[in-house]
Amino acid sequence: MYGTIVFVHVFSAVLSIGPLFLLMPSIKRLRNVDESSESAFLSVIHVIIRIVMHAGHVLVISGVLLILTGPWPWYTSWVIATLAIMLLSGVFLSTGFTKVLKRYHLPESNKGEILTVLNRTSWIYIGLLLIMLWLMVQKPLLW
């Protein structure tokens, strides 16, 4: 059973990081499309964010199951650091993507600035996820 949970955990980690790399070309193309194609690219971006969000939920649940059934206690330094970064990235995901995308269709919004924020947010989120990935794979003793 533990091996299955590890597989689900790793697969959900891939699904929570991988689609973000599709976000960059979508954002780049969105800068130069006409209004008729704009909604299609925004739909792709919304789907990517949904996949990342739901994969993150599976990642958290499988991570909790791994801590409960595995050999590492929850108070291990790398587990605590991973949890802290996970909470930070959860807040960051909701404010950095969802709220920014809601502003996209407002009449007074600067679409170029919003796309720049989305691109920067994507790279920051990828960085946070890679730090968590490093913590989970390397399991460093931080304190």
TrEMBL record:
Tell me which UniProt keywords the record has, alphabetically. Membrane, Transmembrane, Transmembrane helix
Where would you find the membrane-spanning parts of this chain? 6-27, 39-68, 74-97, 117-137
What protein does this entry describe?
DUF2269 domain-containing protein
What organism, scientifically named, is this protein from?
A: Sporosarcina thermotolerans
